[in-house]
Design a protein that fits this description.
The complex is a heterodimer of chains A (about 90) and B (about 240). Chain A has a single domain, classed as Roll (Ubiquitin-like (UB roll)), CATH 3.10.20. Helices cover about 15% and strands about 25% of the residues of chain A. Chain A has 2 helices and 5 strands; from the N terminus they run ββααβββ. In chain A, strand 3 (about 55-60) and strand 4 form a beta hairpin. Chain A is globular, with a radius of gyration of 12 Å. With about 240 residues, chain B is an alpha/beta fold. Chain B is built from 7 helices and 8 strands, in the order H-E-H-E-H-E-H-E-H-E-E-H-H-E-E. Chain B has helices spanning about 5-15, 30-40, 70-80, 100-105, 115-130, 155-160, 175-195, and strands at about 20, 40-45, 85-90, 110, 135-140, 145-150, 205-210, 215-220. In chain B, strands 3-2-1-4-5-6-7-8 form an 8-stranded mixed β-sheet, sandwiched between helices. In chain B, helix 2 packs parallel to helix 3 (about 70-80) and helix 2 (about 30-40) runs parallel beside helix 7. In chain B, about 50% of the residues are buried. The chains are: A alpha+beta (about 90), B alpha/beta (about 240). The interface of A and B includes residues 54, 56, 60, 86 and 90 of A.
């Protein structure tokens, strides 16, 4: 199964400059874990110590919000999983 | 205005409108310029800052000679030069729980040009309480986002982020990012006032300057939202 994770610009330094990465898993959470296995330094920026996504991280699946069950959302072949970081400047 | 279906009636609608622009910085500058140029009748501008040299890469309403002045003072001067017919209502204030209701009072819509999330949430909530639109915008680096909130009808800012805040401090930004997002917010304001087109409802528009891409992300009104969950479309 092919799912692509889209990495925000401020995280690409942790993915060897890759903006789009093929990941594996049946859920958003499994796909993120796969991504972290390949790029471990992402973990601290995505998850807190309790294993929950940081509040300022929003995951979109095929450009639709996955809230409220972000990590448990089922993914399918060809899906695109976008990691978005809250921005607050003005 | 020669745009189709706009006409004198549309211009009169703009003239009758009272718009709050919260912030006179990076986003606020293009928003204020385009709303004044469009002929919005009354613009209330609130800001608590003074012009600094480091602002000038993006805060195009302020010039080198304005360094040290209150931003609202500089803004009023420029906007009156641009369009003397516009009534500018300046407020030198820091938006807080205590004053936000008064700041919003009497306005038809709120345009978010803030530089921090806590103030945005206060405005988001005040807009919901007053049942007026909240036109969100935010920038960082080469990126920007915009979304329009119609209370009770579409997702609000809290529905997306659930109270999350970004790191405190400065957000370095290329000057064109707020120019692009602020222009989109101004367009949304004009469209709302005129009743034209499709607003950015339940659609978070993300601009990525490094990829030169605009992408739209679907968000949902959260029935359990702390800010708007109690509202239905009929209210």
């Amino acid at each position: 199964m092919s799912v692509h994770a889209v990495i925000p610009w401020n995280f690409v330094s942790m993915t060897n400059d890759a903006k789009k990465i093929e990941v594996e898993g049946n859920t958003v959470g499994e796909c993120l874990n796969y991504l972290i296995e390949k790029h471990p330094s992402l973990k601290a920026d995505l998850f807190n110590r309790d294993g929950r996504l940081h509040h300022d991280i929003v995951i979109y699946l095929n450009k639709a919000s996955t809230y409220p069950d972000q990590l448990g959302k089922t993914v399918s072949d060809g899906d695109e999983l976008s990691i978005s970081v809250l921005i607050g400047g003005g | 205005m020669l745009i189709s279906r706009f006409g004198r009636e549309g211009q009169e609608k703009l003239k009758a409108a009272r718009v709050l622009v919260a912030g006179a910085g990076g986003l606020g500058s293009p928003i204020l310029i385009y709303l004044a140029a469009a002929g919005i009748g009354t613009i209330r501008v609130v800001d608590n800052g003074k012009v600094e040299l480091s602002n000038l890469n993006r805060q195009v309403l302020h010039f080198t000679g304005d360094v040290g002045r209150q931003k609202i003072e500089s803004a009023v001067e420029k906007l009156k030069q641009l369009n003397p017919e516009v009534e500018v209502d300046p407020m030198y204030a820091t938006i807080s729980e205590d004053n936000v209701t008064g700041i919003v009072s009497g306005c038809d819509l709120i345009v978010d040009a803030m530089d921090n999330m806590p103030a945005r949430y206060l405005l988001n909530k005040a807009a919901i309480d007053a049942r007026i639109p909240f036109l969100h915008g935010a920038v960082s680096g080469f990126e920007g986002r915009a979304m329009t909130v119609l209370p009770g009808k579409s997702a609000c800012l809290w529905c997306i982020y659930h109270g999350a805040v970004t790191q405190e401090g400065k957000f370095p930004v290329i000057g064109t990012a707020p120019a692009i997002i602020g222009s989109i917010q101004s367009t949304e304001a004009v469209k709302y006032i005129l009743g034209m087109g499709d607003l950015l409802l339940d659609r978070l528009l993300m601009y990525d300057g490094l990829s030169s891409k605009f992408e739209e992300y679907t968000v949902h009104k959260d029935p359990d939202c702390d800010h708007c969950g109690h509202l239905t479309e009929e209210e």
